[in-house]
Design a protein that fits this description.
This protein is of the alpha+beta class. The protein folds into four domains: 117 residues, Immunoglobulin-like; 133 residues, Immunoglobulin-like (Sandwich); 105 residues, no CATH class; 98 residues, no CATH class. It contains ten helices and 24 strands.
């Protein structure tokens, strides 16, 4: 165990836990829709996206994991059901939970409706999601008309017939209409319908991004123009840069004009942008505010050391910001980040909080240091930094057919709202301190149902059932890992 003063460890660990990003474990999904036309028939495209970590998984015969969500779509007017569909979305099968998506198309007629979606986790019926909203299908007798705008996470040329392919491209819908910091372009798809049979004039579209200042006011950020062709139908794949946008709410709009600049039709859609580093640069104060604080005398090496030590503790937008601060290598920005972090942690004594954290980081570094980097960058060091001292550690170094391994047990981990949490690390390389995480039942860590087989891979003939898909080993003398795991 680590020789860290108990008081400092407990105080700092619980203080840090308050600033970690809380994660939601209810059924988390995005439901978006857009109206289009095909051969004068209006239809609704429904884009469904399920966050893989928010559903319960079942084990298949080949020991892969798979989740399912039962979806009920309904379009109704008063008590009359106009369109209905019920189906099950299945996640990709594998050892690691993954997000999954689906697309459905429903026919529409002119009118006002209520569109509703009910989603139920098939492996946990108490885990549900519901949403409903009004749906207006406009009269399509207008000569010039735009479809709704479909915001995209990505698009690529693809002539396949799969549901997400359209007009020669694979279009991945934007989940939640949310664009994180690693996305530098906004992609959108829209269709133009011209039923006038008058193709003598040249029209054009204007597409733009506005920042939503408040409910009434918007500020133009960027815009571009494209000419439209003299044909009844045209599809546009549009994109605008968003790398310089700060975090906030925005509107993407498309307007269709004739040659005389008369507006023919317009559509818009809202989206959210997260760009922590741009926010950070924008609000960074003058050095006089923090320049004489405890960060003033820190050299480049110590700053880099502490930033790396903080990495396991910071997630969400702050984690993205920390990565960018480290990448940019702007020492003033790095000093401000540290000053701001420890000032929020301990407003009255940020220097003391910094020193306590540094002592813990150094102790963990010393204890778990290996050839791969600092001790807190190893799997055991990272887990210790994130969750603190385990309730119990059981070590094994001389089991036949198994490399050295350790099983860590926590009575409770508040950050993930979970009790009886376990981690197993092993050292297949036999190098000093080269323990890697093999498996955990912690919701946010590596889940590996074949961990026992991997641990005892030097005895392949003794897998239960003697099958390549086995997840367990047969019981044997001094083969204790499963027994220890189950009894903890």
């Amino acid at each position: 165990m680590l020789s860290i003063p108990e008081r400092k460890s407990i105080i700092l660990f619980f203080a840090l836990s308050f600033i970690l990003t809380c994660e939601s474990y209810g059924l988390d999904m995005s439901v978006k829709s857009a109206q289009f036309k095909a051969e004068k028939q209006t239809y609704l495209e429904v884009y469904l996206y399920v966050v893989g970590s928010s559903v319960k998984y079942d084990t298949l015969e080949d020991n892969n994991l798979q989740a399912g969500v039962q979806i009920t779509l309904m379009i109704q007017h008063d008590s009359t059901i106009f369109a209905y569909d019920k189906f099950t979305m299945l996640s990709p099968a594998g050892f690691v939970p993954k997000d999954f998506m689906d697309l459905k198309r429903l026919p529409l007629k002119t009118g006002t409706y209520i569109f509703s979606v009910e989603a139920i986790d098939v492996n946990d019926p108490s885990n549900k999601y519901n949403i409903s909203y009004p749906l207006l299908v406009e009269d399509h007798s207008n000569t010039f008309q735009l479809s709704d705008i479909q915001l995209l996470s990505s698009m690529e040329k693809n002539n396949s017939m799969e549901a997400f392919s359209k007009n020669g491209y694979f279009l991945q819908p934007s989940a939640f209409h949310f664009f994180p910091a690693d996305m530098n372009q906004l992609h959108a798809y829209i269709e133009l319908y011209n039923d006038s049979k008058d193709f003598t004039s040249e029209n054009f579209i204007r597409y733009a991004i506005y920042q939503q200042v408040n409910d009434q006011n918007q500020t133009l950020i960027s815009q571009k123009y494209k000419k439209t062709e003299k044909i009844p139908f045209q599809a546009f794949f549009l994109q605008l840069p968003i790398n310089e946008l700060v975090s906030g709410n925005y509107v993407f709009s498309v307007e269709w004009f004739d040659k005389g600049k008369n507006l023919l039709d317009a559509k818009s859609v809202s989206f959210q942008r997260s760009n922590p580093y741009k926010d950070f640069v924008r609000i960074q104060p003058d050095k006089s505010i923090y320049g004489k604080a405890f960060v003033h005398d820190l050299d480049k090496e110590e700053i880099e050391y502490i930033l790396k030590a903080l990495t396991p503790l910071i997630r969400g937008n702050q984690g993205v910001l920390l990565q960018q601060v480290m990448l940019e290598k702007n020492i003033d920005a790095q000093k401000y980040f540290l000053w701001n972090y420890f000032s929020e942690l301990s407003p009255s004594e940020p220097h003391l909080a910094y020193q306590q954290f540094k002592e813990i980081a150094q102790a963990i570094d010393l204890t778990f240091k290996s050839h791969v980097g600092y001790g807190f960058e190893t799997d055991r060091g990272r887990i210790y930094m994130k969750y603190g001292r385990p309730t119990e550690i059981i070590k094994s170094e001389e089991e036949p057919s198994a490399p050295p391994y350790e099983i860590w047990f926590y009575n409770e981990i508040e950050e993930v709202r979970q009790v009886n949490v376990k981690f197993i690390f092993h050292n297949p390389s036999l190098a000093l301190n080269d323990m890697v995480l093999l498996h955990s039942n912690c919701k946010t860590e590596r889940y590996n149902p074949r961990w026992e087989v991997e641990l005892y891979k030097n005895a392949p003939a003794e897998q239960e059932g003697n099958s390549p898909s086995s997840t367990r080993m047969v019981e044997n003398y001094r083969r204790d890992a499963r027994k220890i795991w189950d009894e903890l």
